[in-house]
Structure formats: C-alpha cells, structure tokens
C-alpha cells in the first residue's frame, strides 16, 4: 500500500510536469510575453520538488539502514510533509526500531547475567589466546593466584613454570593436575580447557580449581578404610591365640611349680612350655595393643568448635611446653600479628597438634647448640588464619617430606608414624590444612591453615 501511494504521487507529479511542459510549448507560440517565463519557472519548481521528494525518502531510508548497521536503536523516524502515504512507512520504521531495542535489551540482560555468574563463581576462570594474551580473568582466579591483573599467561611463571606451561600447551577437553608450592601454601590445581572462536580469534577458556583439600580428604578416607580392614582381621586372628596361650599357660603352671601329681613329668620341659606360652601371650597382647593404637586413626571424635583467640591458644601451648624445651637447652618464642586474630576450633585438639609438632622439633634439634623453636600466628596472603611452627634443626630430606603425613611412615626408631597423620586428620575436620617445608640443617616449617 505504501509503495502504491508513493508510485501514485510520482505519476501525478510527472503528469503535472508533462502538462506544464505542454503549456510552455503552447505559450511559446502565442503573443504572451511573461506567460512562458512563468510556466518555465513552474516547470523548474516542479522538477526541483520531484527530486527533493525522492531524495528525502532515500535519505530517510539510508538513515534507517545506518541506524541498524551501527546499532543506534534510540531514534524515531518521521518522513514529514509527505502526506498520509508515508504514515505506514514511518510506523514500520519505528516498529522495527522498537523490535531491535527489545532484542538488544534482552542480549544485554543475558550478557550481564552471564558476566555476574563468571564474576561471582568460586571457580577460577581464565580466557586467553594461544600466545598467552589474556582476554578475561575472574576475581576467583585473581584471588587464587594473588594478583590484581593478568595480561599474559607468562606472568604466572613467577608463581610456577609448570603452571604457565600447562595452561599454554593444554589441549581442549584435557584435564591436567598441577602442584604449585606458593610460599607456605601447597596448591593442587585441576585445570580443564575448552576452545571457541570470537571474531576470528581462537580463545581458550580454562577453569582452575584448587583440589588440595579434596585430595587430602580422599587420601585420609582411603587410609582409614585400609586400617579398619587390617585391624579387624589382625584382631580376629590374635585374640584367640592370646586367649588360648593364656589358658594353656595357666594349666601347666602348677606342674612347673612342682605340684602334687607332677612327679612323672619332666619339670624342665614344662618350664620351657610355660616360657614359650608366656612369650606367645606377651607378644600377642603387645600386638593387640599395637593394633589398637593404629585403630585410633579411624576413631577421631568430632571437634567441639568454639571461637578462640589465637594469642591465648599459643600462650597455653607455650606454658605447657616451656619447661620441657628449656631442659633441652632450646629456645621457644611466640608471636601473633595482629593479636586480635580469632579462630573457630576445638582448642584441645589444636593444642595437641601444636604440642606434637613442638616435640618433633625438639627431637630434630637433638645435638644442636642454641636451637630455636618459633610459634607464629598471622593471616596469610589469602586472608586465612595461619599458625607456623619453625625450628632450625636437622630438617627433612626432599625424598622424605612428601611421605611424612602417610600413616605408619616414620624416620624415628621409636616412632609409630601416626602423629602427623592424626594432625592432618584433625586439620581436615577443621576445614584446614597442614603442610611442611624444609631446608635440611637450616629450617623446617610446619604450617597450619584454618
């Protein structure tokens, strides 16, 4: 309908222009002087009006298309002085603009929704090109890597060469596990990557999650399951042996003492039997006690949480251990900065962990002159309450330090190998971690993070 009206207007204008031209031809052959001039002026006006009419419409169409091209959807269109023939076109233009406005608003709302998810999710997300140029990094990743901004993946080499190489070489769909030693923290990072294209750029989207706590929890659960099975089987086997040996030993005991009716029995033989049975009984009883000790790894009670000032906790441990440490000619210092730090813990459990660590340090300082143990409380760079026990003793060798938290592993002749394993389980129950770092003959640091 719009174009029919437009064509009708053009036809009318052309017919009028033709009529005027015919009138000019007639007046030129007449005796009138000024009439041809007026008719010629009218022709010029009609031609100019026709061109202006067509050009104005074209300009409005061009402006409409440019608005779409440059996403300028706030304009409204009105082709003026065109009569009712262009009212429908004006309305169509404005309806299209409103539709584009609605689509754009929905897209922006969807974009802000996704951006809000990315910015607030607790999984670290990094989007980067193959050359390492970072397109996007969310706050969780900045917090994990302790950085304010990241322009290139290679900047992570100061934290870990292995981490940077893994991110740059990981293939889409791969899962990688990277261990990072960040000062006093150990990070076990699970990395997953996917790939997509944006404006002819290939983008790798990687998610990075610290699964250290998950690994420790699974490791602890596996050891507990193994211990439960072993102790159950061992106890079932030893109990009847112990009971039987005790019964037999009581039966031959009167004969060994030369009781009436024992004349026909070789007393020395009976004594040997008695001694053997006593040995069996002693060893089986000792083995049951041994198994019962390891069974404690699976029977740690649930913590009784309460808010405790870290300064008070460390002062209590200092008071308990001060005399024992001084007897070994070892110095013991403490410090908490700031002194207002509070932690939600089972105080008795954490005290026991600290006491065990200090006793380990005392043993490590055996034979050292002017040994020193330090207990220090502070917030780590991730803002978590932290306690460190440091000594300058003989230290722990590199090939041993990864095994010290394994149940039953020990480097001490009289050690049971459960102290540090119990300490790790206690920290796990508190939602924290315990890690070790050592330079042999220089420094050993155990770090408790809550």
Describe the structure.
With 450 residues, the chain is of the alpha+beta class. The protein folds into 4 domains: 2-111, no CATH class; 121-210, Beta-Lactamase, CATH 3.30.450.20; 215-298; 306-449, Heat Shock Protein 90 (2-Layer Sandwich). The chain contains 11 helices and 12 strands. The strands form 3 sheets. It has a 5-stranded antiparallel beta sheet with strand order 2-1-5-4-3, sandwiched between helices. The longest helix is centred in the middle third of the chain and has 45 residues, at 212-256.
Mean pLDDT: 76
Q: CATH superfamily name of the largest domain?
A: Histidine kinase-like ATPase, C-terminal domain
Helical element count? Answer: 11
Strand content: 15-25%
Q: How many domains, as an integer?
A: 4
Level of helix content? 40-55%
Q: Tell me which CATH architecture of the largest domain applies here.
A: 2-Layer Sandwich
If strands are numbered along the chain, what order do they take across the biggest sheet? Answer: 2-1-5-4-3
How many strand units? 12
Largest sheet: 5 strands, antiparallel
Rg (C-alpha, Å) = 44 Å
Shape: rod-shaped
Low-confidence stretches are none
Protein structure class? alpha+beta
In sequence order, what are the helices and strands, one letter per element?
Answer: HHHEEHHEEEHHEHEEHEEHHEE
The CATH topology of the largest domain turns out to be: Heat Shock Protein 90
List the defining traits of the structure above:
about 450 residues; alpha+beta; Beta-Lactamase; 4 domains; 5-stranded antiparallel β-sheet; 5-stranded mixed β-sheet; 12 strands; about 55% helix
